[in-house]
Amino acid sequence: MTLADDNGAERGGDDLFAAEYVLGVLAADEREIASRRIDADAAFARLVDAWEAHLSPMAAAYPETEPPIRVKEALDRWLFAAEPRAGLWSSLGFWRGLAAAAIAALAIYIALPYVNPPVVEPQTRLVASLAAEGSDVKYLVVYDAVRHDVGLSHVSGERTAGKDFELWMIEGKNAPVSMGVIPAGATAHLAIPPAVREKLAQGAVLAVSVEPAGGSPTGQPTGPVVAAGDLKSI
């Protein structure tokens, strides 16, 4: 089994480039190029808009995090501890004090995560762009280490009748480990077994092979590898 070197000779053209921009996995220079193209190239801008809409269901599972209530309480104590006296709004001393209070409140807000840091697992989300030279099969993969879930977005390439795509994890020279048959459709999700989770969280190579319907009968890839790529932290 041969994996495509660097996953780079066939990047998938503008469609995959736009998808990688939306996922935030491009290098700084590539992201700058993409940003300029969004402003100057209407067709590329439409691709970016389409991928944002296409991938938004994945982001919907991660609600926004509200700042701790103690931050607002600290601001209230600093800013509104006393009622303003007559003529206070025109007082230079008041405005100096207010500025000092705002700076102090900002310092509290910045310091809070260090005083009482939230419990966050490292590298909780990893992404990979799967492609291979000479193949039109391309997938974008997002691994959520907290939910133990792999989300796949099908970019291009069709499976032939009577065949399935199967996802594999490859760690060094060890035998590939099956992560399951990829369901048909534009997006799909696979639950990750406990034995694979830790290795995935550390980063690994993912590959897609063509297998008989229902998956490999041997527990190892039996057909050609049509897409591969490295998992990387966002």
What does this entry look like structurally?
With about 230 residues, the protein is α+β, with helices and mostly antiparallel strands. It folds into 2 domains: about 5-60 and about 120-234, Immunoglobulin-like (Sandwich), CATH 2.60.40; about 70-115, no CATH class. About 35% of the residues lie in helices and about 25% in strands. The chain has a 5-stranded antiparallel β-sheet with strand order 6-3-2-1-9, with helices on one face.
Topology, please?
Layout: H1 13-23, H2 28-40, H3 42-59, H4 69-79, H5 92-115, E1 125-130, E2 138-144, E3 149-156, E4 163-170, E5 177-181, E6 187-191, H6 194-201, E7 205-212, E8 225-230, E9 232-233
Helix pairs in contact: 1-3, 2-3, 4-5
Q: Summary?
A:
The chain is α+β, with helices and mostly antiparallel strands and 234 residues long. The protein has helices at 13-23, 28-40, 42-59, 69-79, 92-115, 194-201; strands at 125-130, 138-144, 149-156, 163-170, 177-181, 187-191, 205-212, 225-230, 232-233. α1 crosses α3, α2 packs across α3 and α4 (69-79) runs antiparallel to α5.
Count of discrete domains: 2
Number of E strands:
9
How large, in whole angstroms, is the Cα Rg? 25 Å
Order of helices and strands: HHHHHEEEEEEHEEE
- Residue share in helices? 25-40%
User: How is the biggest beta sheet arranged?
Assistant: 5 strands, antiparallel
Structural class: alpha+beta
**Low-confidence spans:** 1-11
CATH class of the largest domain: Mainly Beta
Oligomer: single chain
Task: Write down the CATH topology of the largest domain.
Answer: Immunoglobulin-like
Give the number of helices: 6
In angstroms, what separates the terminal alpha carbons? 28 Å
Strand content: 15-25%
Mean pLDDT: 76
Net shape: globular
Order of strands, widest sheet? 6-3-2-1-9
